[in-house]
Amino acid sequence: MRVSFTVNGRRHEADDVWEGESLLFVLRERLGLPGSKNACEQGECGSCTVRLDGEVVCACLVAAGQAQGREVRTVEGLADGAGPPGGLAPIQQAFVDAGAVQCGFCTPGLLVTADALLERQPSPSDADIREALSGNLCRCTGYEKILDAVRLAAARSAAGAAPTAPGPEAPPAPRSEPEPGE
Amino acid sequence: MDILRTPTDLAQRGHGGVGESASRPDGVLKVTGEFAYASDLWARDMLWGHTLRSPHAHAEIVSVDTTEALSVPGVHAVLTHADLPAATHYGLEIPDQPVLAGDVVRYHGEPVALVAADHPETARRAAARIRVEYAELPLVTDESTATAPGAPVLHPNRSDHYADRVPHPNVVHHQPVRRGDLAAAKARAEVVVTGEYELGMQDQAPLGPESGLAVPAEDGGVDLYVATQWLHVDREQLAPVLGLPRELVRLTLSGVGGAFGAREDLSMQAHACLLALRTGRPVKMVYSRDESFVGHVHRHPARLRYEHGATRDGRLVYVRGRIVLDGGAYASSSPAVVGNAASLGLGPYVCDTVDIEALALYTNNPPCGAMRGFGAVQACFAYESQMDRLAAELGMDPVSLRQLNAMSQGATMPTGQPVDAPAPVAELLRLVRDRPLPPPRQWETAVGTGTGFDLRALPGGLSNTTRGEGVVRGVGYAVGIKNVGFSEGYDDYSTARVRLEVVNGEPVVLVHTAMAEVGQGGVTVQAQIARTELGVAKVVLHPADTRVGSAGSTSASRQTYMTGGAVRNTCLLVREEVLRLGRERLGDTHPGWRGDGLWLRDGAVVTAGGEVLADLAQVLGDDVIDLEREFRHRPTEPLDPENGQGFGHVQYSFCAHRAVVEVDAELGLVKVVELAAAQDVGRAMNPQAVVGQIHGGSVQGLGLAVMEEIVVADGARVRNPSFTDYLIPTILDTPTMPVDVLELADEHAPYGLRGIGEAPTLSSTPAVVAAIRAATGLALRRVPVRPEHLTGT
């Protein structure tokens, strides 16, 4: 089947999608957007968390066909509109600064979840942060520095000084590579 | 471009030297979703590989019929044992593991056949149509069944170098450690406590599944992009299996989503390469979560019996221990795990008379091997539980008893090895004990709900199982000792290539090693070292691959020591070459060139006093300095097979914990309220990353204490291979974790540093269990502690 939907503001179409494919599979394998991660593919770990029409969902539990005509936002689009191109969203910068990233496999899902938390609750308590992030497993950090990062992003936002400066120099990764299946 | 998302150089400009909390060079890529993990790889025309696995734990393979699977449209290859082109077995130390099972399967989940197809679902469906006829065989699952008269011998005709010394062919390796006169010591003991302990099978559960992409090359070789812990040891095992010379098997590290020991053994590496060479097309394999749970080795479950004798005033007189580790169906790293358990089995204490033996079994349970803590975790749970029992028997404070017996620099290990670096065991215990306790009944004072009451601070949380009634608090302590680096005479080395050149007027350092970055931050430290030693702002890290010499394994807490040491050493040689060139070319221009102590800072050669002699651009011009050198730690020696005596370990690492728990005693629900740690790290190369390691290790220990266990039952089958049923701590299960870091330099190590990754995983588990015992008064001999152990139901 053909599925078309919007990802990070850009219209995408995928052909020859098997009905059993998840939104996660189509994002990763057909649209060239592997930022959302495939750690369990059964909705337990949160590594594939994306926004679907604004709702926080596990992309592995959404059939690709269910995304038809809808808007998806992934970690790749988190910084859109947050500052100059190539910059980081405040929550991304906070994760880097707080040391909340180790292996990083859980990071995209945590970022999308934390970003949604701060959107609806700009100054969450620690208990609020823990509750909101309880669906996102991390095996490396013990979560302390993830808490630090969310607190830091909230504090910077409250101070009105959320930095959007580019991070350390990194090579530009291909954003518009050929898409498998196209 | 035909292959996408292969690793790229990581470049950073001016972000901190040794001792600073420099940010990760891969941090921005990881927060933007651009970082290329092994499961993100993509190649034009690639196929997907899938593994058919045994549904039985022990069975004869009567027949295999692949006809139907081969007829599925989209399938390009089906491989079985009969298709293997060369060596049929592999292994880290003992090549006892079939690449694909031949006549017999020895554990549930053992690979039997492979499929390559153009869609992962097609490959899965085709694998289900491979007809395998099994005839089940009797199981051995523990010491009594494995060593019973007439027990099936899982590996007959063993030729490994442990075979002649083991008490039974189903014992992989057996190591006694004996010191002192046991009979005399027993006569002196005024108090004796004995205890039996058990640990369930823990899983590393890295979030990144086993993944990789094998690409056949025009020269007949193969290029493998993979998530692993040691590229070169993978290659050593792959080349014979593929029937290729080593130089035609090229590996590049892809992004690794955590490891913790799970990636020390081969998983999909040989399978993907075999399929790629057979089909002539790139083959990607990505394990699903349930496959991951059977597709890598686990932490050895263990049964331990200890006997501690002491004087009435609390001094240890003798310690006896017997540690039985279940190695499962294949050897993996069981021999080294046995060596650790035996040599570290006393704990960080002084005792002149020790009689400890450790052994690992061959059984039909899932293979067990490396997991963070590696043999020391199992021993620590038992010896620390014993120290608490001894304290109770003596009526002593458990911290005081530990401090009374704590080892310090100058002590002698039960192996006879002198402890010749700081060992601040008593001080670490003091640090965690002296911290103020978290306030009680925090659910009544928690902020954020506006009601003055927060369920989320209670055991059971939002399940609303209690309003505080029946909730009791307990506090527990533990301390542990872990070795750093490969032990027992292993020739353990790492290699670093460092290249210095001036590009557009700016000096640039390229660091190229084969170190597997698995999340620990080794890449950060490498860049910090290069900046410190060569005084340049811009450092580029080359992707890790087999084009450079081996870095050894990212395990045994060894990479900052070993590859950090290698990068430092090579940088110092590059610096010498810069100074030599400078003296040759510019020596006449300034008398400072003749002085001692010249170094590099801010892209220039400076005198010991800091006066600038020349920019690197002036010294080097268009020349490039490019050196590759190996670095070794001081040699160790094997442990004596009879008494375990020997200079077996490179370095020791110590961590202490205090756990505060609250238990709903009626429902058996545990909430860990705080988990404080204190650790000596020698030198905090990157303080932020050090604390991150201590946090992460502590939580894995917490998981073992109260939730994590692979359930092997119903014919030795893995019953809970999912994150629904194998529980790892969430952010709600994880407490506040204050950390004290000591920096007592080890003069034998680069920068005085100490490997840190594993020690916090040891003492966390017994500290949490001690706290639950203190809260409930229960004996609790087994981890993980489950609700039914607390309620007696």
From TrEMBL, chain B:
SUPFAM superfamilies: CO dehydrogenase molybdoprotein N-domain-like, Molybdenum cofactor-binding domain. InterPro entries: Ald_Oxase/Xan_DH_a/b, Ald_Oxase/Xan_DH_a/b_sf, Ald_Oxase/xanthine_DH-like, AldOxase/xan_DH_MoCoBD1, AldOxase/xan_DH_MoCoBD2, AldOxase/xan_DH_Mopterin-bd_sf, Xanthine_dehydrogenase_dsu. NCBIfam families: pucD (TIGR03196). It comes from the Bacteria. One of its GO terms (molecular function) is oxidoreductase activity. This is Xanthine dehydrogenase subunit D. Residues 1-25 are annotated as: Disordered. Pfam families: Ald_Xan_dh_C, MoCoBD_1, MoCoBD_2. Gene3D superfamilies: Aldehyde oxidase/xanthine dehydrogenase, a/b hammerhead, Aldehyde oxidase/xanthine dehydrogenase, molybdopterin binding domain. Residues 32-138 form the Aldehyde oxidase/xanthine dehydrogenase a/b hammerhead domain.
